[in-house]
Amino acid sequence: MLKYTIYRILLTIPTLLGVAVLIFFMLRIVPGDIVEVKLRGDGGAVTQETVEMERHKLGLDKPLAVQFKDWMVGLVTLDLGKSMWTERPVMEEIAIRLELSLEVAILATLIAILLAVPLGTMAALYRDTWIDYLMRIITIGGISIPSFWFGMLIMLSLLAAFNWLPPITFTPIYVDPVANLTQLIWPAAAVGYRYCAVTARMIRSSLLEVLSEDYIRTARAKGVYEKLVISRHALRNALLPAITVIALEFTFLIGGLVVTEQVFNLNGIGQLFVQSVTRNDFTLIQGMVMLIAAFYVFVNLAVDLLYAVLDPRIRYA
Amino acid sequence: MTIAAPDTSMVVPAPRLRGAIAEFVRQQPLGTVSFLIIAVMMFAGTAAELVAPYDPLAIDFASILSPPSWTHLCGTDAYGRDICSRLIYGSRTALVIGFTSSFIGSSIGAVLGIASAYFGDRIDDWIQHVMDVLLAFPIIVLALVVVAAFGKMLVGGIDINLIIAVAIPIIPRVERVVRAAAFSVRVMPYVDAARAAGYSHTRIIFRHMAPNVVAPYLIMLTAFIAQAILAEASLSFLGLGVQEPTAAWGLMLSGNASDFYRQAPWMILFPGAAISLAVFGFNLFGDSLRDFLDPRFKV
Exposure pattern of A210-237 as b/e (b: 16+ CB <10 Å)? Predict the structure, then answer.
C-alpha cells in the first residue's frame, strides 16, 4: 500500500508541471498584455515611455526565460507573485474570496447529494416506467439549463413572490448565519442542479449494474426483504462509483461558480477569475489556474487512494 | 464449373438507411423528439432572413422594452430590438459556433485517440500526459484561459479564437473515449494485415482504424455540440464571447438584461429558454444515439 501511495503521489508531479509550463507559454504566445488594458482604461493618449515604464514595473520587459525561471522558482517556494492589476499578492487576492466560494460549493454539494440519492435510486428501481422517464427529463434538464440562467430564474421568482433580491454585501456565517444562508442558498441551488443531475444519473446506472449481480439474486433467493436488499446489498455497492463522481464534480464546481457568481453579484473566486481574464492579469490567471489544477489533482489522488483502501485489487495491480 | 453465389455481404442496400431511421424512431421516442427540436433550430438558423419578422439589429426607440404582443412576439429589448428575431438569428450563431467547435475538437481528439492507441508505448504515454493536464479544468475554465491567451480574431464576423477556445476543452474528453475504442480495434487481425502489407501509419490510422471508431466519434460529436453551445453562451454571457451587436443567446442575457428584472422579465426568459432547449435537444439526441448505435453501453 505504501509503495502504491508513493507512486500515486509522484504521479501528480508531471501533471502539475505540465499545467505550469502550458499556462505560462499559452499566455505569452500572442502579443498583448495587461499594460494595454490598464492604460487604455484611463483613456487619452499614452506615450510609449509610460508603457515601457509600466512594463518594467511589472517585470514584463524581462526576457521570457527569466520570467519563466521566476515563475517556476515562485511555484516551488509557493509564492505566486503579485497581481499585475491590484499589485497585491495573488495568494491574498484568492484567500479573501475563498470563504464565500467554498461555502457556496459545500452548500451545492449538500443539495446535490440529498436530492440525487433518492432520485437516482427511484429511477433505477422503477426503470422504464414514467418515474424513470421523469427522472431522465429532470436530469437532462440539469445538464442542459445553464446555471447562470437558472440563477436568474431563481432571482425572478424571488422577486415575484417576495419582492426580494439577494443583498449585495456578503455576510459571513459566523456573523449572522440566517442572513448568510438566505444569501448563499440560491447560488448554491443554481450550481447544485447540474451537480445533482450528474450524480443522479451515475447512481441510476451503477445501481442498475449492481442489481443484476449474482449476490443480489442470492440475497433475494434466501428471502431477504426487498428493502434490505436495496439498502444493504445494492445501494452500498452502487455508491462507490457515485462517490468518485461527487468528488470530481466538486472540483469542477468552479466552472459553475465562474458564471453564477456574476449573476448573484458575489465577490468570489469565480468572479476574480473572470476579472483576471478580462484584464489580462497574467500573474493572477497563472496563480488561479495552478490552484484549480492542484485542487483537481489532489482530490483525484484522494479518491484513488480511498479506492485502493476499499478495493485490494487496485493496490496490487 | 461452379459459379460462386454473388457475395452480398459487402453490399449495403439503399433501403437500409430508411430502415435504420424507422428503427431509431421506434426504439427512441425521446430521441426523435430531440431530433425535431434540432431540426426546428437548424431551419431557423439557415432560413433566418425568411423566418425572422424584423431585422435583428434594427433599433427602434419608439418601442423600447415593450412586452410580448402580436407585433413583437417575445417583446423588445432596451434598444427596441425585436427579441424573437434576435433569437432566430441567435440560433445561427449558436449552431455555427457549436457545430464547428465540436467538429474541430472531436476530430482532433479522435485522431489523437486513435494515434495514441495505435502507436502505444512512449507516444501513448506522452499524449496521455498532455490530455491529463487539459482534463484538470472544467470546460468553461479552460475556454476562458484560451480566450485570455489568444484574444480575438474576427474573420467574416465570426471570432475564430472563440471557436478554438470552445474546441480545445473538447479534445481530451473525446480523446479518452475514442482511445479506449481504438484499443479494441488495434488488436484486430486486419490492422496486423495492413501493417504486414507495408501501409503507412497515416493510412492505417485513417483508412483502417478510423472507420471502426465512427460510432463513438459520432456520439461524442453530437453530445459535445450541446456542451459547445453551453460554453459559447457562458462566454458570451461573461462578455468574453460573441460581441454586440451580433445576435447571440448568451449575450442577450448579459450586461443590462439583469437591470430589467422588474420591468422586462421577457428579456431574460426567452433567450435562456432557447439555450436550454437547444442544449437539451443535442444532449438527449446524443444520449439516444448512444443507446441506439452502441447497445453495449445500455444498462
Answer: bbeeeebeebeeeeeeeeebbeebbbeb
Helical segments of B120-169, H only: 121-135, 139-150, 160-167
> Are B137 and A32 inside 8 Å of each other by CB?
no
What is the distance in angstroms between the Cα of A174 and the nearest Cα belonging to chain B?
30
**What digits encode the pLDDT tens for the residues A23-81?**
888 888 777 667 776 766 655 666 777 777 777 777 777 777 888 888 888 888 888 77
What distance in Å separates the CA atoms of residue B169 and residue B146, rounded to the nearest whole number? 9
Using an 8 Å Cβ cutoff, are B259 and B278 in contact?
A: no
Nearest to A83 by CA among A40, A119, A34, A128: A34
What the block records as the C-alpha cell of B20 is: 435504420
The rounded Cα B248 to chain-centroid distance in angstroms is 16
CA B62 to chain centroid, in Å, comes to 38
* CB–CB contact A296 B137 (8 Å): yes
C-alpha cell of residue B156: 467574416
Chain A closest-CA separation from residue B279 CA (Å):
5
Q: What are phi and psi of B226, to 5 degrees?
A: -60, -50
pTM of the model: 0.87
**Residues of B with Cβ-Cβ distance to A19 under 8 angstroms:** 133, 136
Mark yes or no for CB contact A255/B276 under 8 Å. no
A81, HSE (Cβ side, Cα atoms, 13 Å): 23
Contact B233, B143 (CB under 8 A): no
- The CA distance from B161 to B147, in Å, is 7
Which residues in chain B have their CB less than 8 angstroms from residue A143's CB? 279, 283
Among A residues 258-287, those touching chain B with beta carbons less than 8 Å apart: 258-259, 262-263, 273-274, 276-278, 280, 285
Q: How far apart are CA B186 and CA B179, in angstroms?
A: 10
Q: How confident is the prediction for chain B on average, in pLDDT?
A: 84
Distance CA A49, CA A35 (A): 12
- A and B: number of Cβ contacts within 8 A: 130
Question: Which of B235, B280, B279 lies closest to B140 in space, CA to CA?
Answer: B235
Contact: A255, B226; criterion CB under 8 Å: no
Residue B282 to residue B226: CA distance in whole angstroms: 5
Is-contact A317 A24, C-beta < 8 A?
no
CB burial of A182-203 (b: ≥16 within 10 Å; e: otherwise) equals ebbbbbbbbbbbbbbbbbbbbb
Dihedrals phi, psi of B158, to nearest 5 degrees: -110, 130
Which residue positions in chain A have pLDDT lower than 70?
Answer: 32-33, 37, 39-46, 312-317
All cell numbers assigned to A87: 499589485
ipTM of the complex: 0.85
| Interface mutation target, options B34, B132, B141, chain A, most CBs of A under 10 Å | B141
